[in-house]
Design brief:
The protein has 14 helices and no strands. With 369 residues, the protein is mainly alpha-helical.
């Protein structure tokens, strides 16, 4: 039922379409922004197309309309993509150089989320926290919370789209993890829909890692995050077996990175909407440049940093899948995951500060000679 021949054939077509469109973006030189090279959070060394999300979205769109073997799933996914359009358009407009800004993109995420609730009548019915679930039982509380939380998660995917392959690999990991849970609880329609997205992401990944010839961009990162998080909402809505904390573990990396950014900018008194270069993956990349690879070799440090971060991002996903129906276990695993993440980051920041201090000391010594 889950791996019917028609589904596998459709997935191959979607993979090929995404790969072909991604390659086309490279040779057509579309969506390149030289300003990205001087941005504070820049992590690549040459103008790179930021329209990879267009390739992924169009491949999924084509697979839904022309290749899907299940009419019921096809019609539902068509509607899903339709309600995702406001967010996708806002993100692509930013990628093309129009000053959309973070606030407008978040507003578009809220609009697309509210449209999902209106179209499918689904939202987070519970968080598996007894007192909080009393409020989640009331739609007037649960719906706004779900829409705002999911908008935040969609934005989180944009924050991790910095290193070659990182955002796409994390997205593929989340997609596969949700598919495994769907197979366990019998949600075949969700499984097939996620399979299409996984195929499209895989086609894009071929040209995204390790050389970073094309990036997801805002349009891709936002809409992929949107599709994944609202699919997970639908999974929790349709299955009482699935722990909400298992879903949290599966989405751990983008959520943890966003919470880290909020904490970091609050402590520093910085504008929440202004980008910086202090994300976890950027700390790893700069650490490699300073300690091992050397400056001027970012084309090596970038994919190597992504390869180092990916196992850390996959570990919570594995735990979420393994204990998907155990609330107690997933609560404790979430606490452990967040604790390890923040403690590791703090230790890394202190190490880097000591390294800069030693470098300044050596510089003063040379000046005195």
């Amino acid at each position: 039922m889950f791996l019917a021949s028609g589904f596998l054939t459709n997935s191959v077509y979607v993979f090929g379409a995404s790969l072909a469109l991604s390659v086309l973006l490279i040779f057509a030189r579309l969506g390149r922004g030289a300003s990205d090279l001087i941005a504070v959070q820049a992590s690549h060394t040459r103008p790179t197309s930021r329209l990879g999300g267009v390739a992924v979205f169009l491949a999924v769109f084509a697979g839904t309309w022309f290749w899907f073997s299940s009419p019921s799933v096809s019609s539902s996914y068509q509607l899903f993509l339709l309600v995702s359009a406001p967010l996708f358009v806002a993100g692509v407009a930013e990628d093309l150089g129009y000053p959309i800004g973070v606030r407008l993109r978040l507003l578009a995420a809220v609009v697309s989320g509210a449209a999902f609730v209106a179209a499918f009548g689904q939202w987070l019915p519970r968080l598996d926290i007894p007192i909080v679930d009393l409020g989640m039982a009331m739609p007037i509380i649960a719906i706004p919370f779900t829409v705002l939380a999911c908008a935040g998660v969609a934005h989180a995917f944009n924050l991790i789209d910095g290193l070659n392959g990182l955002s796409s690999f994390v997205s593929m990991g989340i997609c596969f993890s949700l598919m495994v849970i769907c197979a366990q609880v019998g949600l075949s329609a969700h499984f097939q829909a996620l399979g299409l997205l996984l195929a499209a992401l895989s086609g894009f990944f071929v040209v995204n890692f390790p050389f970073g010839r094309v990036f997801l961009g805002d349009g891709g990162a936002y809409v992929i995050g949107h599709i994944l998080v609202w699919t997970s909402v639908s999974i929790v809505w349709n299955s009482q077996q699935v722990s909400a904390f298992a879903i949290l573990l599966i989405f751990f990396w983008p959520i943890a990175d966003t919470l880290l950014a909020i904490w970091r900018r609050t402590v520093r008194g910085a504008d929440m909407t202004r980008p910086d270069r202090l994300h976890f993956h950027q700390l790893v990349m700069r650490g490699l440049e300073i300690s091992i690879i050397g400056r001027g070799r970012r084309h090596i440090a970038n994919p190597l940093a992504a390869a180092m971060v990916v196992p850390m991002a996959l570990a919570p996903m594995f735990a979420g899948v393994l204990f998907y129906d155990d609330v107690t276990a997933t609560v404790w695993l979430s606490i452990v995951a967040f604790s390890c993440f923040f403690l590791t980051y703090i230790a890394g920041m202190r190490w880097s500060q000591r390294g800069r201090g030693r470098g300044r000391g050596r510089g003063r010594g040379r000046g005195e000679e």
